[in-house]
Amino acid sequence: MSHVSGTGGDESTGHTQMWPPGTVHLEDMRGPAGGRIILQPQPTQDPNDPLNWSKKRKYRVCMSLWSMNLSTLQLQHGGPMHEELRFSYEILNDSYAIGCACLGIGAVILVPLSLKFGRRPLYLFSTIIQFGVSIWSAKMQTVSDLMLINTIQCFFGALEEVIVQMTVSDIFFVHERGMMNSIYIWSFKLTTSLGPLIAGYITKGQGWRWVWWWNTIFFGICIFIVGFGYEETKYAPNPSVSALSGSGELNENPTHFDDDPDGKVKDLARKSGANYPTQLDQEITLQPLHAFSEGDLSYSGVTMDPEIPMKTYWQRLAITKTSSSPKGTNSFFRHLYQPFVLLLAIPAIAYTALVYGILVGLGDVMSTTLSTFMTQPPYNFTSDKIGLMNLPIIIGITIGTLVGGPISDWIILYFSRRNNGIYEPEYRLWAMIPFVPFVPAGAVMFSIGLSNGLSWPVIAVGFALYYVGIAPINSITITYLTDSYRDIIGDAFVAVTVVRNSFSTAFIFALTPWVAAVGINNVFVTIMLIATVLLLCVIVFIRWGRYFRAFSAARYQFYATQQYTERVS
User: CA-based, 20 to 30 A from 126: which of 6, 53, 163, 215?
Assistant: First the structure.
């Protein structure tokens, strides 16, 4: 018997249905009160299960992790380095592009390590590496230094783009992830915007090398914060630990797939390879449903197994491999190429990667062109004034997060109630639609203002509008992916990160000759049109996303069996 994600029982017929990946019973609508949220994924009876941690403990872990965002001081433009070290602006742009490429490479290498050994050792090791690289940056002298620094710094910086969402998935339930991912996106964008702003004033007052000395100080502090504040969130339960029992019932009737009446999904599974197993012909054991009151933030209804001792504080800080058993001798190496297979095999992964990639790529082009063109006439901005142009980003992402985060989690509960408590991940995508128009509107205003030498407030407003749109859109798409394919989310985020950084790398490498050939306005129009088309494809996923999940269910089940043993939800 095997546990399968996304299952439910049909009370009227007495048989069991196997839903597409991501479809879960989110609310128990029975009884006069109704509306009791069902914890998804199911927590166990283990007090050490991260899902059973108190809210305070979960937030403390997140805060210790997000503290690394503070160490993002960087030169907003290369003017001082150009003057002192004679680095050309083309070399500076190329170094940035190399960094983007290394973010993708780092994700491919580091995520398999985090799946095997846990999140904590990777976070801590990365922080120590960044501390050392910051010292190196402060003493930089040659182009080789510049390129190697960006290579190493961004290789390990990939953790911040990939494993953070895995941590959110580790410790928060489906109905909480939208807000938590929004807070992460907000904190990441906020600090990456504040960093250049502060760096501008440091450069003007103390010199550009002190930007990196301050980074060294911040990373030194973060070593202690992460070392003593971040607990391992990867959970590999002992086989004897069972899920909590509650309002549901165990059911071991053979399954049938309600979205595969003609057997196409089964046929697809069989045709995918001679050794390709399919869970669709097997029996499953349903996880019992555990319900709690919507206002019960302490989860007081959870009954822990008294036979399982709570780990001490020092045990929780151990830098050791968690109890993980790979289901194949080549599991580590499989994770090096599996993300690219999933990128082509599962539509939701490809869509999330393209949307996230084009939006971040366009944002990088906006930042790069701003820092280059606004140092020239008619603006002639100094480093501190360039830094101040990050304030519109801060305003935009704050507005987008304050509005988009709560809407994302509220809307899934609203639609689930209308669907007898059954949650479909596509419900979350409805929250994305109001923010789509802000992306082209902001990009067009920014490009028109910059290419025509208009007053800087025009450029600032365009910048702000753009980030009002992308902050909630990025959060919603990555949460949609997490909800749909949690059991392979590490590989999925690697694919997203590689595509995201491929966009940035290609755009930044091509930017200088591209602008010279067609002009800055045409460059922005081209990228903006591509972004708008990809964003509008959300309508396709709202309408047919459930079918896509059903069609790719066999692939998902197969690749889920290739993961290291963690929680099965």
Answer: 53
